[in-house]
């Protein structure tokens, strides 16, 4: 056998065009499928398998389950109708038990592929019994030259194709490539091969040509495990690297700012908040950079934890930065932190796309005994000690090049689930290994967390502060809207406020017109109560004015797009109405619902939705039944699948060919474990 690979070239990197039988046209078709090398071809995952050892007699084909049958072409023909504009091509197969009509609508060229007397494999389920018929089945003509070992009498792979590429040709190519290159399919990490799963070589063989259908699934699991392992080794390896090389800034603080801060706060921290702060303080003083994720359901009080963490860094003479996903939230945090921090002598700066502002403390506002930090006494910019302490708040504008604070000790990212992994990394690269605290209200099931946040330690605030009014959730159809408005007016009449969330998620020009119209309707409908409108396209001053008016109860109702989804905190607002709720994900609705029930009054979340289908009803019922963000996330994940559920969070994750973030939780756990053991063993 001649060697295709040039010496020194990794054999699996051999271009497919080097294989006999792969000319430029075929190579181009394969490239359209992303297949350029032998290695890529051998990982081309079949779409499904056909067990061609157990063909189903045509007489026993059913409506419910797709099956493979085989018959001989006894008649075929193309019928045109509507003056030739429409057509149906029909092929009649007979296998001795019955006849089967295969039909293709408006695909006249199908007739080119078949001839009288051909033996045809057909896959599908019946759409009718009189006659037995399948519309648009998948078919394969059996050729006399077919090697039975490849195409017939076996569990045969059916691959994703591209135009012009025949199934049988691709299957034979994979067969030949396997025969020739199987020896090069070595274990990527010999010490790590899991004994209960096939070897990598066996898995790749069984992926294409399994002895039994179940073997294909075990092969998939092995290949999925390898993918998860690659990811875990990268994540955990990076973390190990960081801890080995980065000496971190001592940021645990000395309480001189936190003490007066907590005194004027107006409430006691909950036990959960205190416990988390203890973990954070330990990290900040540990000598290696903190990488911590704080999970806490909406309203659990993460902002105060962020504030205390920032104060620890500031007490230690370092600066802190806090990044949030929306301008509205940035404005709100700016107001909150200015109120909290300026009396302590801390400067608060705001940097968003729209503006830059600062709130400077009054002179001599330094709290605590250690009044003048060293720099004030002319000690120079030696580690720590800057005058005055500074917190910078902002949106992703903070990541942009201009912002490189001196002595950045701590980076906090609020509502991390709205950012991508890449943005987090970008932010931390500023300064000298600052500590990182990321906060999220979207509880991610543990295994997903391992892939998304595998490099982070996790803290959880598992209790809401006491004294919250209960929140009731109702799902209603649109006919009930008049009653709903009546209810809302009654709540407004006793002084409460309401959010009305407008369904559009995007903010294009048409949507803008629609929401403006909705605003006019609503203002009329609810008069004399005052309605404000906020959306992502408002200019900063307008937006701030509306939010300030709503906060101060000068507006009774806020009509908003999903810009208010995260973080907005107005305790007197107790009613949330979401129209067209069926258009939102459950986790998103739960976030929106987090806008209410923040004060002592009972809250009401009314989801008006198109409830035509039982599924829609069932889905929203989850929200009526539970306020537990974890359960809601799980339900959302199961309903929508990880791709949509994770959305932007997933950016930064590699695409998985074999792994499935939802189904493969056991494998993910295992990869996490194996990677940890492996890294502990290898220096
Ligand atoms: P989230 O975790 O959603 O960011 P916030 O930090 O906005 O929640 O807190 C929600 C509300 O609860 C705020 O009004 C905040 O001041 C209040 N809060 C936070 N911690 C406590 C506490 N320990 N006791 C009482 N109220 C608290
Ligand atoms: Mg928050």
> What small molecules accompany the polymer chains?
adenosine-5'-diphosphate, magnesium ion
The chain-level mean pLDDT equals: 86
With strands numbered from the N-terminus, the spatial order across the biggest sheet is 13-12-14-11-15-16-10-17
Question: Major β-sheet, in short?
Answer: 8 strands, mixed
Structural class: alpha/beta
Content of β-strand:
15-25%
CATH superfamily of the largest domain: P-loop containing nucleotide triphosphate hydrolases
Shape: globular
Q: Helical proportion? A: 25-40%
C-alpha termini separation: 41 Å
* The CATH class of the largest domain: Alpha Beta
Question: What does this entry look like structurally?
Answer:
This protein is α/β, with parallel strands linked by helices and 683 residues long. The protein has five domains: 1-47 and 159-176; 49-151, Nucleic acid-binding proteins (OB fold (Dihydrolipoamide Acetyltransferase, E2P), Beta Barrel); 185-245 and 653-683, no CATH class; 258-461, P-loop containing nucleotide triphosphate hydrolases (Rossmann fold, 3-Layer(aba) Sandwich); 471-649, Rossmann fold, CATH 3.40.50.300. Helices cover 35% and strands 19% of the residues. The chain contains 19 helices and 23 strands. It has an eight-stranded mixed beta sheet with strand order 13-12-14-11-15-16-10-17, sandwiched between helices. Strand 20, helix 15 (540-551) and strand 21 (557-560) form a beta-alpha-beta unit. The chain is globular and about 95 Å long. Residues 1-5 and 366-386 have low confidence and may be disordered. The structure holds adenosine-5'-diphosphate and magnesium ion (MG). Magnesium ion (MG) binds at residues 302-303, 414, 567.
């Amino acid at each position: 056998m001649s060697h295709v690979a040039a010496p020194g070239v990794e054999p699996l990197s051999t271009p497919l065009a080097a294989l006999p039988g792969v000319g430029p046209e075929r190579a181009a078709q394969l490239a359209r499928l992303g297949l350029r090398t032998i290695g890529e071809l051998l990982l081309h995952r079949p779409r499904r398998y056909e067990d061609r050892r157990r063909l189903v007699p045509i007489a026993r084909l059913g409506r419910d389950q797709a099956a493979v049958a085989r018959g001989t072409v006894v008649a075929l023909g193309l019928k045109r109708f509507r003056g030739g504009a429409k057509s149906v091509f029909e092929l009649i197969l007979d296998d001795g038990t019955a006849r089967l009509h295969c039909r293709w609508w408006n695909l006249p060229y199908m007739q080119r592929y078949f001839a009288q007397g051909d033996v045809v494999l057909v896959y599908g389920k019946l759409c009718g019994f009189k006659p037995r018929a399948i519309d648009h089945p998948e078919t394969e003509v059996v050729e006399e030259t077919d090697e039975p070992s490849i195409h017939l009498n076996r569990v045969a792979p059916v691959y994703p194709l591209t135009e012009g590429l025949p199934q049988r040709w691709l299957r034979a190519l994979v067969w030949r490539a396997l025969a020739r290159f199987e020896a090069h399919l070595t274990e990527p990490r010999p010490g790590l091969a899991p004994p209960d799963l096939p070897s990598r070589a066996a898995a790749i063989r069984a992926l294409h040509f399994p002895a039994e259908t179940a073997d294909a699934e075990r092969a998939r699991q092995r290949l999925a495990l390898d993918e998860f392992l690659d990811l875990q080794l990268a994540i955990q390896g990076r973390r190990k690297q960081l801890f080995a090389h980065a000496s971190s800034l001592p940021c645990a603080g000395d309480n001189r700012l936190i003490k007066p801060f907590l005194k004027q706060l107006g409430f006691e921290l909950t036990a959960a908040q205190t416990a988390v702060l203890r973990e954070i303080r330990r990290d900040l003083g540990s000598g290696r950079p903190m990488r911590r994720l704080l999970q806490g359901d909406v309203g659990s009080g993460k902002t105060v934890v962020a504030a205390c963490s920032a104060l620890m860094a500031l007490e230690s003479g370092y600066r802190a930065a806090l990044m949030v996903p929306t301008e509205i939230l940035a404005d709100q945090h700016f107001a909150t932190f200015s109120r909290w921090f300026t009396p302590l002598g801390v400067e608060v700066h705001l940097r968003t796309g729209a503006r830059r502002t600062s709130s400077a403390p009054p002179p001599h506002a330094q709290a605590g005994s250690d009044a003048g930090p060293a720099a004030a006494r002319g000690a120079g910019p030696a580690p720590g000690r800057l005058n005055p302490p500074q917190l910078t708040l902002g949106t992703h504008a903070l990541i942009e090049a201009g912002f490189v604070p001196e002595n950045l000790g701590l980076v906090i990212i609020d509502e991390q689930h709205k950012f991508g992994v890449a943005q987090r990394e970008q932010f931390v690269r500023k300064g000298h290994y600052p500590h990182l605290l990321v906060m999220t209200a979207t509880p991610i099931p543990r295994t997903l967390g391992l892939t998304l946040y595998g490099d982070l330690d996790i803290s959880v605030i598992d209790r809401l502060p006491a004294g919250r009014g209960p929140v009731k959730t109702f799902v209603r159809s649109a006919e009930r809207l008049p009653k709903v408005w009546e209810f809302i007016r009654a709540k407004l009449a006793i002084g409460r406020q309401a959010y009305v969330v407008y369904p559009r998620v995007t903010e294009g020009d048409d949507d803008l017109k629609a929401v403006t119209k909705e605003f006019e309707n609503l203002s009329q409908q609810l008069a004399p109560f005052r309605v404000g409108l906020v959306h992502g396209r408002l200019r900063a001053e307008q937006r701030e004015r509306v939010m300030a008016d709503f906060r101060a109860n000068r507006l009774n109702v806020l009509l908003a797009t999903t810009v208010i989804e995260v973080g907005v905190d107005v305790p007197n607002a107790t009613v949330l109405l979401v129209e067209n709720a069926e258009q939102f994900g459950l986790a998103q609705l739960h976030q929106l619902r987090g806008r209410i029930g923040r004060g002592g009054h009972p809250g009401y979340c009314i989801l008006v939705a198109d409830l035509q289908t039982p599924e829609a009803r069932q889905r929203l019922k989850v929200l009526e039944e539970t306020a537990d963000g974890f359960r809601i996330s799980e339900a959302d994940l199961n309903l929508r699948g990880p791709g949509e559920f994770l959305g932007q969070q997933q950016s930064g994750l590699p695409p998985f060919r074999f792994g499935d973030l939802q189904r493969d939780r056991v494998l993910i756990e295992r990869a996490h474990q194996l990677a940890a053991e492996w890294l502990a063993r290898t220096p």
